[in-house]
Design a protein that fits this description.
single chain; 512 residues; mainly alpha; Serine Threonine Protein Phosphatase 5, Tetratricopeptide repeat; two-stranded antiparallel ribbon; two-stranded antiparallel sheet; globular; disordered N terminus; signal
């Protein structure tokens, strides 16, 4: 069933990360005191809790988005910075006790445990329910729980597992610990990478049955963009992303096309303008400044009174007087990638003289400086994380086309994206076997900059990277060469998970 009403998001206090294992059943604040769900209303409230858990600053509004890009070659630490994320940026200092990586692992299993709690108890509520509308709502809630669990597991696989090779050996590669039940006797043991992805796909199949749009919902009478809830097209978007990571090119094209051709979303244009506080901004800027865009498939909904982390803090550290960024964009991104008529440069970067004693003047990443409704209340750097955007779907499909040898179709998708982002662009993009993947890589950096994709892209492409010092960059970390397939492309399993009572969890090479 299509969601008939947008849920009212409640402020839920996240449980402290204190238990010995993320697989333990917590947080208790998310469940009734008697450990049961007895009414449809309670099930619905539990789903609201699942949505709220995605607001965690350990996830999309913080560590899960920032760490994979800070770890690579996209930004440089600035002399005099606060040292935040320094272990990750320096690369070689990443340990299994890193608190930021631990928090990602824990927050994702928090989502999973909340989903399991609902799914274990919903059948008893359904058996006691006779009202058709309430039964439909229960189906909707189950669909949302299945999708949320699939999304959380897909992120765990992405961060803590090797790349899926589709070479017949993924059944031997370690995946993640899979749990289907809130209270069960499931072993603390990693499933294979193949079985881990199969679990995600099975959950997405179940979600697809329950969250499919009704026939009378059409793009002409239904708005799905900039939504804060899951629906049929968030499922397709994740299916496309997972298919790309599994090197299932046919399905990547299939599901990305479902989203692209749906009619519910259109790319935001840098050539169309609107007025904000008396100033003209293009619609691409508006997407970041106001968190509204026709290309946003799913974003995490914040309000002034209920929000997660501040993605923009490390790029600004604005104190109403000056900017003291911890990290600034890499020179090669700013000056080597973007064409002169690519309007993304002026839309998401802005040159600033910092407040440091060395007076560094450098273009800062402005797209995370914050929703203007928040900044007007002196809340800086808070923007609603856009977990799925239409532009990524074009990039997924283009890469899948390239891997299938269809360079013409891939070129059309890149042209479509660039036309929306450039002041002017030609009628076609020439892609060949020699240049296609270079174009894909460059376009993914330009379009998805600091949205959490770079580390995982390099891992699945089996590519390394280099850093060379730039103006006022920290000496420790600025000179770095990372070879392809370095163990730290896969994050270490948190040490407390390995040491927990009853744990049979296999460590990653990066743990050793």
């Amino acid at each position: 069933m299509m969601i008939q009403k947008i849920k009212t998001y409640a402020v839920l206090t996240a449980a402290a990360f204190t238990l010995s294992s993320c697989l333990d059943k917590y947080p208790e604040d998310s469940i009734p005191s008697d450990g049961a769900l007895t009414t449809v209303s309670e099930v619905n409230e539990a789903i609201i809790g699942i949505y709220a858990s995605f607001m965690s600053s350990s996830l999309y509004s913080g560590n899960l988005t920032l760490l994979p890009d800070i770890q690579t070659d996209l930004v440089y630490g600035v002399n005099g910075n606060t040292g935040v994320y320094g272990d990750v940026w320096r690369w070689n200092d990443i340990l299994s006790t890193n608190p930021e990586i631990e928090s990602v692992y824990g927050a994702l299993y928090t989502v999973i445990n909340r989903c399991n709690f609902v799914l274990d108890r919903v059948d008893a509520v359904r058996a006691a329910t006779t009202d058709d509308e309430e039964l439909d709502l229960l189906d909707q809630c189950c669909g949302e729980a299945y999708f949320a669990r699939a999304l959380a597991y897909s992120e765990l696989i992405k961060c803590f597992c090797e790349a899926y090779e589709n070479d017949g050996k993924d059944g031997e590669r370690p995946g993640v610990v899979l749990t289907k039940h809130y209270k069960g006797d499931e072993p603390m043991r990693r499933a294979s990478l193949e079985d881990s992805y199969k679990f995600v796909l099975d959950d997405l199949d179940k979600a697809a049955e329950l969250l499919k749009l009704e026939d009378d919902f059409t793009p002409s009478n239904t708005q799905l963009y900039s939504t804060g809830y899951f629906n049929e097209y968030t499922i397709y978007a994740l299916r496309a992303r997972v298919s790309l990571y599994m090197k299932n090119w046919e399905d990547a094209v299939k599901y990305a096309t479902e989203v692209i051709d749906s009619g519910y979303y259109t790319l935001t244009s840098c050539n169309q303008y609107t007025t904000v506080s008396g100033s003209q901004v293009n619609l691409y800027q508006y997407m970041w400044a106001m968190d509204v865009s026709t290309e946003t498939i799913w974003q995490i909904t914040f309000t002034i009174n209920s929000y997660g982390g501040a993605l923009g803090t490390v790029f600004a550290n604005y104190d109403n007087t000056s900017y003291r960024p911890d990290y600034v964009p890499a020179y090669w991104v700013l000056y080597d990638l973007y064409d002169s008529n690519d309007l993304r440069t002026t839309s998401i970067f802005g040159e600033v003289t910092t407040g440091y004693s060395h007076g560094l003047t450098w273009p800062l990443l402005t797209k995370y400086f914050g929703n203007l409704s928040f900044t007007s209340n002196n809340i800086y750097g808070v923007t609603m994380p856009k977990v799925f955007r239409l532009s990524e779907q074009y990039l997924i499909r283009a890469e899948a086309y390239v891997q299938q040898g269809d360079y013409n179709s891939a070129g059309k998708d890149i042209t479509k994206l660039r036309t929306a982002r450039y002041s002017s662009y030609g009628s076609s993009t020439s892609m060949t076997a020699d240049n296609a993947m270079d174009i894909i890589e460059q376009e993914r950096v330009k379009e998805l900059y600091m949205e959490g994709f770079r580390l995982h892209d390099l891992k699945r492409w089996h590519k390394g990277f280099e850093r060379e010092p730039q103006e006022q960059s920290l000496s420790n970390g600025s000179s770095l060469k990372v070879e392809a397939d370095d163990p730290l492309f896969v994050w270490p399993i948190p040490q407390h998970e390995l040491d927990a009572p009853g744990s049979e969890i296999e460590p990653n090479e990066s743990n050793k």
